[in-house]
């Protein structure tokens, strides 16, 4: 499989190189040159497979040429073996024909484990083969950091540095990062906000001289391998609900358009999906595009669903690329306009094409809490605020009651107790068994000023399993 850039100028890469790449050299994002396509009969024959075996069948075409089948199978079995639920991504029924797919049974209790548990293992496999080491520098406002550290903590050939804004992430989220020890794990609290952290990561990719030749790898959702891993659970859910003979719809709490883009790919690979709902919080750039064909940056608002607090959705470029007939020059031009502060609209027929599949809703904090309370009253289930946004959007935007609606349950409610308390749900939430002593564990973290040079100096001092690069 070869991968090409959405902006048309960077060289095509194989899977191994795309795994180790960040942005393409032309500023674009990598996508498969040709998407594999499965027949309905083929998909139907996968019914009842354990999660890791289904994952093997779906992801195999993406890695051919880079990872032999037997090795890939073993990696997938290990990856999904760490999930605390035997079904890995179980479905829970909320209402007639309405389901939540629980994607929070991984080590850090959010769906990001599906991709980052795999990414860590893939990196270690590829790096061992090449005899290379890499450094990861990532910024997090919460969920990504812990999932990335959990995914990479056993990697022999990876040193991971996670920047979070000092005193601006929740205690549970912070402790999920800072209580993991290892000479290749480095938590840095920056005396600044999340944007400052992200800016430092961006600048480190732009000038890597401080790494003295060691390669820098991206773990945010621009990394293709993350998207790839998320395609699997769309098939998994559909197969349990009568697919592919019957089509299924999904409602996806969305920030960077990564998770929902994986659903779009599942459909293009042959899975009958009737409707994909883009569910956002007040940071609604995607909803404004889907409802009114306006892609315009606005100011950032802090909400009760912080993992979706974004101004710009990086993976949206991948959808735009397809909507423009995979014309890289057109995307480069659009993104240039956007960067210069302008927003954009796309031509009417391209927007209409997107709207055949996608609907959207922006959900306020108030409506989020109302939905948590409503679902608790109806079912006794406590939803996390991100998942609640998905449920609200599913109920508002659903096209057909006859088609099963699956809401992606992106996090465990215990990660976001503020929203649950605000919703007036009186049920005490408990941390799962492997995390019960989280609040009393020892923490390790370095506080650094909001200064790029200080951070880069720290990385080069510690980037080789705690020793200088
Ligand atoms: C990251 C995250 C999201 C948003 O996912 P995207 O792929 O960025 O759209 C939603 N919910 C939770 C809990 C998350 O951690």
UniProtKB/TrEMBL annotation:
Enzyme class, spelled out: lyase
Domain of life: Bacteria
Pathway note: Amino-acid biosynthesis; L-threonine biosynthesis; L-threonine from L-aspartate: step 5/5
Record EC number: 4.2.3.1
Cofactor or coenzyme needed: pyridoxal 5'-phosphate
Keyword Zinc: no
One of the GO biological process terms: threonine biosynthetic process
One of the record's GO molecular function terms: pyridoxal phosphate binding
Coiled coil segments of this chain: none
Annotated Tryptophan synthase beta chain-like PALP domain residues: 92-330
Ranges where the Threonine synthase N-terminal domain occurs: 2-80
Residue positions where N6-(pyridoxal phosphate)lysine is found in the record: 112
One Pfam family here: Thr_synth_N
Catalytic activity: O-phospho-L-homoserine + H2O = L-threonine + phosphate
Keywords: Amino-acid biosynthesis, Lyase, Pyridoxal phosphate, Threonine biosynthesis
PROSITE patterns assigned: DEHYDRATASE_SER_THR (PS00165)
PANTHER family: THREONINE SYNTHASE FAMILY MEMBER, THREONINE SYNTHASE-LIKE 2
Protein's name according to its UniProt entry: Threonine synthase
Organism, scientific name: Pseudomonas eucalypticola
């Amino acid at each position: 499989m070869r991968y090409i850039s959405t902006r048309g100028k960077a060289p095509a890469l194989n899977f191994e190189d795309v795994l180790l790449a960040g942005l393409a050299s032309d500023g674009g994002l990598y996508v498969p040159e040709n998407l594999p396509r499965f027949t309905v009969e083929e998909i139907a024959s996968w019914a009842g497979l354990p999660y890791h075996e289904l994952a093997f069948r779906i992801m195999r075409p993406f890695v051919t040429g880079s990872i032999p089948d037997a090795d890939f199978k073993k990696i997938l079995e290990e990856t999904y073996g760490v999930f605390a639920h035997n079904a890995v991504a179980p479905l829970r029924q909320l209402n007639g024909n309405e389901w939540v797919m629980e994607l929070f049974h991984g080590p850090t209790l959010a769906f990001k484990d599906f991709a980052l548990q795999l990414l860590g293992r893939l990196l270690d496999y590829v790096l061992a083969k090449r005899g290379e080491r890499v450094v990861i520098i990532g910024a997090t406002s919460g969920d990504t950091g812990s999932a990335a550290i959990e995914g990479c903590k056993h990697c022999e050939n990876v040193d991971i540095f996670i920047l979070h804004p000092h005193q601006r992430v929740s205690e549970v989220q912070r402790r999920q990062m800072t209580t993991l020890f290892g000479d290749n794990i480095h938590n840095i609290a920056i005396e600044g906000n999340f944007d400052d952290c992200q800016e430092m990561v961006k600048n480190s990719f732009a000038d890597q001289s401080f790494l003295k030749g060691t390669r820098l790898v991206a773990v945010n959702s621009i990394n293709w391998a993350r998207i790839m891993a998320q395609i699997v659970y769309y098939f998994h859910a559909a197969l349990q609900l009568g697919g592919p003979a019957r089509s299924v719809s999904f409602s996806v709490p969305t920030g960077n358009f990564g998770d929902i883009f994986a659903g779009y790919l599942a459909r293009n690979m042959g899975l009958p999906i009737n409707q994909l709902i883009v569910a956002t919080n007040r940071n609604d750039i995607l909803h404004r595009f889907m409802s009114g064909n306006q892609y315009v940056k606005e100011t950032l608002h802090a909400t009760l669903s912080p993992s979706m607090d974004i101004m710009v959705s990086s993976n949206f470029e991948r959808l735009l690329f397809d909507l423009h007939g995979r014309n890289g020059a057109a995307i480069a031009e659009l993104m240039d306009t956007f960067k210069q502060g302008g927003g954009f609209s796309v031509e009417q027929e391209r927007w209409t094409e997107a709207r055949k599949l996608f609907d959207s809703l922006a959900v306020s904090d108030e409506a989020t809490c109302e939905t948590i309370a409503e679902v608790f009253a109806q079912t006794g289930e406590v939803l996390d605020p991100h998942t609640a946004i998905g449920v609200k959007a599913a109920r508002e935007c659903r096209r057909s009651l006859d088609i099963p609606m699956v809401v992606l349950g992106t996090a465990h409610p215990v990660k976001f107790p503020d929203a649950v308390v605000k919703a007036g749900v009186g049920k005490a939430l408990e941390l799962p068994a492997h995390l019960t002593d989280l609040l009393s564990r020892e923490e390790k973290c370095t506080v650094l000023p909001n200064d790029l040079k200080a951070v880069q100096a720290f990385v080069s001092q510690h980037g080789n399993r705690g020793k200088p690069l």
